[in-house]
Design a protein that fits this description.
Layout (H helix, E strand, L loop, with lengths): L4 H14 L9 H8 L3 H13 L3 E4 L5 E4 L8 H9 L28 H19 L2 H11 L2 H15 L1
């Protein structure tokens, strides 16, 4: 399974927005700057997050994005679904119903073993992402980020928010 790079960008943006004071916002251009990604492409993903109710957009010169709800209420799966959709990763094409051993469709009363295995794996993957929140990620980043990067990030936030 392959997720789009937009998922990575969106999860990182949500983590940054989780660090903002309650009424603060960050414009898409500044979020793109922070992550070194193309602003127009990131804006598309931020709009998807907005449509999903994960972020809110404030218009105007002082506008930008903020989380629409607490970081503890936003799962990583919420972000994945907002950006990449909720479609299953595996789509069974029923190839067992082709070729020399094929039978009429009515003979296949259950999903094949491959489809069942893929569904179990996807359910486990989705459960894991559902149980991980943006707040959980922020806590890990806070513990694992090199001190020099924290210092640089804090300076950037000071510049941007004041």
């Amino acid at each position: 399974m392959r997720l789009s790079e937009g998922v990575e960008w969106a999860v990182h943006c949500c983590a940054i927005l989780a660090l903002l004071p309650p009424e603060a916002t960050l414009p898409a251009a500044r979020l793109a700057e922070y992550h070194g990604v193309p602003p127009a492409y990131l804006a598309k993903h931020l709009q998807a997050l907005s449509r999903a109710g994960i972020v809110t957009a404030e218009p105007g010169a002082k506008g930008g994005y903020r989380l629409a709800k607490p970081a503890t209420a936003v799962s990583v799966l919420d972000v994945v679904r907002a950006v990449d959709g909720a479609e299953p990763a595996f789509r069974c094409m029923e190839i067992r119903q082709r070729g020399p051993a094929a039978l009429p469709t009515s003979e296949y009363r259950q999903a094949c073993a491959v489809t069942k295995a893929m569904a179990r794996a996807e359910a486990a993957w989705r459960d894991a992402l559902r149980s991980e929140t943006i707040a959980d990620l922020v806590a890990v980043v806070g513990r694992e980020t090199p001190p020099a990067a924290v210092t640089k990030a804090a300076a950037w936030f000071q510049e941007v928010l004041h």
